[in-house]
Amino acid sequence: MSTPSTPHGAADQTVPTCPRHPDRVSYVRCQRCGRPSCPECSVPASVGVQCVDCVREAQRNAPVHRTALGAPLRGGRPVVTWTIIGLCLASYVLQLAMGWGGWTSRLAFSPALGEIEPWRFVTAAFVHSTSFFHIALNMYALWIVGPYLENLLGRVRFTALYLLSAIGGQVAVVLLADPSGASWFTGTVGASGAVFGLFGAIFVVMRKMGQEARGMLVIIGLNLVVGFVVPNISWQGHLGGLVTGTVLGAVYAYAPRERRTVVSVLVTVVVAVVLVGAALLRYSQA
């Protein structure tokens, strides 16, 4: 009985193929796992190439660099700040095009309207008076303060800070308005409450970071005085936004490092609940 024999000098070898593309022959191998890798699945490395699977695994296991307040360290543009400014500017154009009775009246806030249309607690922060000075001042302040806070806090906490400060400003208007007077029906617009919230937060954050904060305190004080002295400015909204932003900023800045995420989420939810509860209580009394 005889068996087939391999000719002298020949080797019985399997042709290497790419694991992700079995129909492609590849004699190039990944420097990490040693598997064959076709040109489409190869990523240049400092020595040779690596397959895309090894590159993704390395990226998942790579340490995340964070800011002093625990946010992922990102490069590039302040996306949230730019988005808010873009929404406010687009809204301002619609205001000019449609007038007060059109776009503005649908989004403006008053205690009376907020009770039946609660979304106005947020939307009023994205419309302004027809005076260009109003929106220009708010957007300039947002542009100066926003990127710094967005970078340190991260996009999620910065968004929560901005929106809850805006809501806090409107809640203060409700709490300090007279249900039997004209203030209950007077409309308010503008991002000032949210901007004052950023002012309060950045003051606390700068103190935490060991930076000189007296200049920011002077800015906050001057703006508060202007709100009390100049007519047709909602000092109540400024005050409410400032208090809300200061509280959130203090929590975000001083939360224990090992429990920063849990504490930040918990206090953000608590602040939101307190604002909603305060507004509902006031409405029940009115």
Automatic annotation (TrEMBL):
Lineage: superkingdom: Bacteria
InterPro entries: Peptidase_S54_rhomboid_dom, Rhomboid-like_sf, Rhomboid_protease_S54
Cellular localization per UniProt: Membrane
Membrane topology: Multi-pass membrane protein
All residue ranges annotated as the Peptidase S54 rhomboid domain in the record: 117-253
Pfam families: Rhomboid
Main location: membrane
GO cellular component: membrane
Family of this protein: Belongs to the peptidase S54 family.
Name of the protein in its database record: Uncharacterized membrane protein
UniProt source species: Sanguibacter keddieii (strain ATCC 51767 / DSM 10542 / NCFB 3025 / ST-74)
Lineage: Bacteria, Bacillati, Actinomycetota, Actinomycetes, Micrococcales
